[in-house]
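Colleagues,

For the teaching module next term, I've prepared a clean inverse folding example: a structure given as tokens, and then the sequence designed for it. I'd like students to try predicting residues themselves before seeing the answer, so please don't circulate the second half yet.
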């Protein structure tokens, strides 16, 4: 296994083979955008706009870009855990092409998120709309994957409202923008830490292993270290790699108790209903009730329930009674305690987990 908590020098396609199958919890991709800039950009006062003109953003044609994208995304698929998550950021130049390739590789797109820039650069030539956003795609490994989503953590930080898919952050500027030895902007597309932290807080838990294949100056890895996650980064430019590792050494992680997510979002050990019977909390032949006691089902020794002529799991019988295709039986069913008080069977499950 490649060493963790550092940025490794080299092309990501050459470094990927050093990572074992199904070992990464979360991947963040900030690949070349293929901006296709073929001439100098200038402001109205004729000063030059510093854009992305590095070799790493140049491709012969769309086919070569697509092939490159397919290669690194296939490696992401290999190293990602079955319940892992993947995020990729891009602009109109590349994000739609990447989205198609993700679907071709059977990734399951969960959301597209708009990063609305509160301080975008203007369109100096006044020939198009100002590019005031970038698009992120959030995926699970396949349609049936049980990915990490810290719903309640996000909701709490959003004043108890569901988090939406439009996020407003300024572009990286001021003291956060890293400088090179000439005191010039080190990297043209450095991402803001606030955006990186949001992705990590949504899609991972403390101690997870995160991967940033196109690290640049390692904003994602920097946020990962701050939030108590482990990380691996790849960067093929020696100057960027050196600057990134220097940046990471200066970061002090938060104390462990400060990076805990909501208890409701923590991965829970699966407890089959039969465990409640085998552990002696419930007896075969005893009854379960809905909240107002208008329905009663009988517990069988194998952990199934009977209700009238129907027999099935706690979920199947609850769905039958409520005339729906699915229903959470843990929320629906209750038992009588010694004082004849109704108690949710989910309370027993919590006790067993603890």
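(Answer key — instructors only)
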């Amino acid at each position: 296994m490649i060493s963790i908590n550092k940025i490794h020098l080299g092309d990501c396609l050459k470094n990927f083979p050093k990572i074992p199958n199904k070992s990464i919890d979360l991947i963040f991709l900030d690949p070349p955008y293929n901006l296709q800039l073929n001439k100098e950009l200038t402001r109205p006062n004729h000063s030059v706009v510093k854009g992305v003109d590095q070799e790493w953003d140049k491709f012969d044609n769309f086919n070569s870009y697509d092939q490159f994208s397919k290669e690194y995304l296939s490696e992401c698929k290999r190293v990602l855990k079955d319940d892992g998550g993947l995020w990729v950021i891009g602009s109109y130049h590349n994000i739609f092409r990447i989205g198609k390739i993700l679907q071709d590789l059977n990734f399951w797109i969960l959301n597209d998120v708009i990063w609305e820039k509160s301080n975008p650069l203007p369109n100096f030539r006044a020939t198009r709309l100002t590019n005031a956003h970038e698009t992120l795609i959030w995926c699970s490994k396949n349609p049936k994957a049980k990915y990490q989503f810290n719903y309640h953590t996000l909701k709490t930080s959003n004043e108890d409202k569901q988090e939406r898919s439009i996020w407003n952050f300024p572009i990286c500027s001021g003291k956060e923008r890293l400088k090179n030895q000439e005191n010039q902007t080190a990297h043209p597309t450095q991402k803001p830490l606030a955006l990186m932290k949001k992705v990590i807080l949504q899609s991972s838990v403390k101690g997870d292993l995160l991967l940033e294949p196109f690290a640049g100056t390692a904003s994602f890895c920097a946020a990962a270290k701050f939030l108590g996650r482990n990380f691996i980064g790849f960067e093929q430019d020696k100057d960027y790699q050196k600057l990134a590792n220097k940046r990471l050494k200066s970061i002090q992680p938060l104390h462990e108790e400060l990076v805990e997510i909501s208890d409701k979002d923590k991965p829970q050990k699966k407890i089959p209903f039969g465990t409640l019977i085998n552990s002696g909390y419930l007896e075969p032949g005893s009854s379960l009730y809905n909240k107002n006691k208008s329905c009663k089902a009988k517990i069988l020794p194998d952990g199934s329930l009977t209700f009238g002529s129907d027999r099935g799991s706690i979920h199947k019988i609850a769905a039958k009674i409520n005339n729906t295709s699915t229903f959470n039986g843990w929320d629906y069913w209750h038992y009588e305690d010694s004082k004849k008080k109704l108690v949710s069977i989910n309370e027993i499950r919590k006790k067993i987990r603890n």
